[in-house]
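Sequence in, structure out.
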Amino acid sequence: MDWLTAAGWGVFSGSALLLGAAAAFFLSIPPRLVALVMAFGSGILISALSFELMEEAIGTGGFWPTAAGFLGGAALYTAANVILARRGAKHRKRSGDQQPSDSNSGVAIVLGALLDGVPESVVIGVSLIGGGAVSLPAVTAIFLSNVPEGLSGTAGMKTVGRSPLYIFGLWGGITVFSGLAAIAGYLLVGDLGGGAVAAANAIAAGAILCMIADTMIPEAFSESHDFAGLVTVVGFLAGFSLSHVL
């Protein structure tokens, strides 16, 4: 029943999106603070993919398969992101008025949010393959980084007039999908051997790093450029500490 464990951890990490969304919807949070929280989340994720995903991948599959997977994940994410950005999802994590409010962009925003969350959730499922324990540093990093994602994206959707049903339906749906993606990671990769596990971790790491650069860092820098770098470093140190403590 490890697939149920994978689902539970996936939903748990995704639920942080709802926490961030609730904070942004019901509280008045300054855009500068939203940006700083996004910078912190970016640092945590960079640390997780460096010390958890890439280390695991290279230890299991070696350098060249890891490098190929890393670049492949980045290329796949970039291609999908470009397509969705041209359909209205480019600013899905922005907290200001950059997000489009027309109905035609709604599907693209939903798909873009799913695109951002799938690699993270797959990682959770992959970590349970072979009867292993879930990677607590990775889950913690994903959870903590999802809070600012929900916070910033909701602030932007609220600014352009998206309804509460749309906002919470979006994040609630992605939370459920996070559990399903974790199950998929566990079931689809589990029977393919150590090389596939290494490739899955590397592909996810490449996709996550692209997501950080394309959607999280721009929001962090736009409102808090004087301190965005410092707060990102603090987030990285927090993630590094989690990897060594947990």
